[in-house]
Every structure is written in structure tokens, then in C-alpha cells.
Amino acid sequence: MSVLFETSLGDIVIDLETEACPKTCQNFLKLCKVYYYNLNAFFNVSKDFLAQVGDPTATGTGGESIWSLIASQKGEKAPRYFTPEFVPRLKHKQRGTVSMAVAPAVGEEHKGGCGSQFFITLGDNIDYLDGKHAAFGHVVEGLETLDKLNDVFVDSDGRPFKDVRIRHVEILEDPFDDPAGLVVPDSPPTRPPDNSTRIAEDEDPLETLPEEEAEAIRRKKAAQASALTLEMVGDLPFANVRPPENVLFVCKLNPVTRDEDLELIFSRFGPIMSCQVIRDKKTGDSLQYAFIEFDKREDAEQAYFKMQNVLVDDRRIWVDFSQSVARLNTSWSNNPKMGAPMGRGGRGRAKGGFGGRDDLEATTRYREQSQGPGDDYGMVFDVPGRSHKSRSRSPRRRERSRERPRRSKSPRERRRDDGRDRDRRRSRSRDRRSRDRYDRRR
Predict the structure, then answer these.
(1) Which site among 122, 166, 233, 361 is 20 to 30 Å from 287 CA-CA?
(2) Number of separate domains in the chain
(3) Helices (H), strands (E): how many in the chain?
(4) Is 109 helix (H, G, I), strand (E, B) or coil?
């Protein structure tokens, strides 16, 4: 009467002493039949001594007999263990002896005996186990598997660092009738019964990947760590957020390039929902980069390939897909226009700002005011009903300013203002030439 154990280290065939130990062998075979030992881990391995298995919890305190298992499935109570069968001629002399682990008696309620745990000896002449644990079989095939099991690395408690599991059990011959109430599952389990944190039995910790795959894995882990860091500091709403696929980032712009110029140039690829040159909050000077949002992702991809390194206002621009995701987060922006529609009326406005910067959230775009051609700059997305001038001066402050005499400008200030006017006139002239060149190309 034999049983085949397919383990993660190899196969083991065990012959059972069914005539000398009928109750022990019946318990063992029926537990094998209900897949009780499938995916169990060897939780105690001592070199040249023994390898213990049969506890689903892999702690050394679990396991029960087949009769206790049947009773528990019915909601009834039965003794957890049965009385061990000690046979004087069955001793622990040879390596590969299979023996039931005998639990000691604790008090009157907990009587000792045999449950489901068993062990296989890994050395010869271990005679001090005779009379303490009940031998009932021996290994006839798979001694090389026992050699591998004897050489595994274990911790201070004898648990292998890499799990060694019984993958499958095959009963080669069973002479016993099934106990009353025995229910055989339709299929063996697919998940281990214990919650092991060790190296998995099918995992190779020393396996090396090709350099390209290893580099890709390292970059992916580094990106995940960076995203988690940005989430912790508040720059990302959540770590798994992805940047929009229809927004382009354009940099290396000429300081004189305006929103209208970029929109005119990029509009040939498709409808543009937003075109915005980012400018300094105080001076209104261009920061020489912009964000362009297309209606469709395909249009953004086409513009990305066609406009790379193109000459715009005597500058070769750089185009890339936007990596900003701040516009997806609507809970930490001070922009009063948050949530406004993104049509033509909201051109130059990307919801949520860019990169989580407060200055760009509050001042998304500047344009020339109607006071004079190129005289001053104003914010498009100010608080409704309040211009930048009315916000900077309260009525009382304006009244005080009328009472104070106006200070005449110094020669240095007049030269500075004349230079600014001259620069604005040159800028408008260059803008007109750029539009004319573009119109001629079209």
C-alpha cells in the first residue's frame, strides 16, 4: 500500500504498514484522499534528523485526525487525536522512516495522541524516537529528494527560508473503506492553507533577468517611489494618476511669442481647447513655455511629431507631452475660475493649473489691455468684477493718492520707459512679420 507525494523538491513514494498499524494508515490515507496534505509546507526541518509536515497552519500546533475533521464538517464534536499505535518492530533505524507525531497530553480535556502531523527521518539510528512517536511506513523511492530536503536553509526555528511544499498527493492503493460521512472535494486546493511570507516554492531568488528587462523594472520601481513621494508632499492628488494624453508642453519659446500665435500655428492639427503661454505674475514677462490642449489625443500626437524643433519667432521650440497632473485635482487650487468650461471663452485656461504651483494657478495667462497698444498687461482669470488695478487700490487709497502731488519722473526713469516702449513696438513688428510669413506658407 503506497502513496506518492509530489513535492517542490521532487517525488517521494511511501510504503505503509497497513497490517501492523491499520488505524494510523487509514487516518493517513483518508486525509490524503480529501486533499488535506495538498500544498502543506514542511515547517520543521532539522539536518540529519527529521522533516515535519502535515499541519495546515505550518505552526506545529494545528492538524486533526480524519474522524475529527468529519465531525467538525457536520458541526459535531469528536476527539481531535486518536491513540497512537506503537509496534515494537517498527523502529527509527533507517533514513526515510515515516512516523506520526504524537502530541502530548495537556490536562484532562486535552488528551494527547496522533492527528495529521507526520515526519520523515533524515538520518539513521535515531532510536530515541522509539516508543515516543508511532512509525507506520518508510520511503522506498525519492531518497535523492530527502537529500535535497536535508540541505535546505532554515531559520532558528527550523522553518525553511524558501517554502518546501507538497504539491500533490496520489494514492497508489487504498485497502480501507471510507468512514461514514467522508466528503471528497471536487478538486484539490489551489492556494496554500497557511499565510507564508517566505520565498515561494516556485520562486527563484537568484534568477537574473536580461539587462533591458532589469533596467525597465528598476525604472518602474523608481517611478512608483517618486509618485508616492509627490503624493506625500501634496504635489499629486494620488500616486497612480496619469497625465492627460491630449495636452502638449511647449518650451524654448521666444519671449515675444503670444498665445494667439501658438494657437494659430498649432490649430492646423485640430481643434484647440486651450492655449496658454505661462507668464510671470508680477512683470507679465513670458516664462518661455506653454501648454496646449487639443480636443482629441490623435491631434496632439500629430502635432507632437510635426512641430518638434520647428522655428517659431526665430526660436526652435521643443514639444513634448505634458507631465503635469495638477489640473486633475480640483481640491487644492486657489483659482476662482476652477471648474469653468474649457471652450473658446476659457482659452488659455487649463483646469487645476500646472504642476501644483500657486503662482501659475493664480496667473494662468496675461494679455494686452485696451488702454493702449502694448501699454500694460492684465490677468484674464482675475476674480469676476475686479480688475488688477481696482484690487491694488482701495477707494480710500485712491483718495489719498489724489491728495498727494505726483512726483515727476527722473531722467533715468524716462529713459527706461522709452526703452520699454521701443521694445514693445519692435515686438509688435516681429509679431506682424511672423503672422505674414505663416500666412504666405499656408
Answers:
(1) 233
(2) 3
(3) 10, 16
(4) coil
> What is the rounded CA–CA span in Å between residue 244 and residue 304?
14
Same domain, 216 and 319: no
What tens digit of pLDDT does each residue of 397-434 get?
555 555 555 556 676 677 777 777 777 777 777 777 76
Angle at 262 between CA 257 and CA 266, to 5 degrees: 155
Q: What is the length of the chain? A: 442
Taking residues 209-218, report their average pLDDT. Answer: 86
Q: Beta 97-103 vs 134-141: how paired, if at all?
A: antiparallel
- Kindly report the CATH number assigned to the domain that includes residue 376: 3.30.70.330
Set of cell numbers at residue 92: 527509527
Three-class secondary structure assignment of 406-421? CCCCCHHHHHHHHHHH
Q: Which domain holds residue 226?
A: 210-241
Q: Which cell goes with 389?
A: 488695478
Let me know: does 40 contact 53? Beta carbons within 8 Å.
yes
Amino acid at 418: D
Which residues on adjacent β-strands are paired with residue 50? 46, 121
Q: Which three cell numbers stand for residue 107?
A: 490536562
Q: Give pLDDT tens digits for 84-135.
A: 999 999 999 999 999 999 988 765 556 779 999 999 999 999 989 999 999 9
Do 158 and 10 share a structural domain? yes
The answer on 217 and 265 residing in a single domain is no
Neighbours of 6 (CB within 10 A): 16
- Asked if 264 and 312 sit in the same domain, the reply is yes
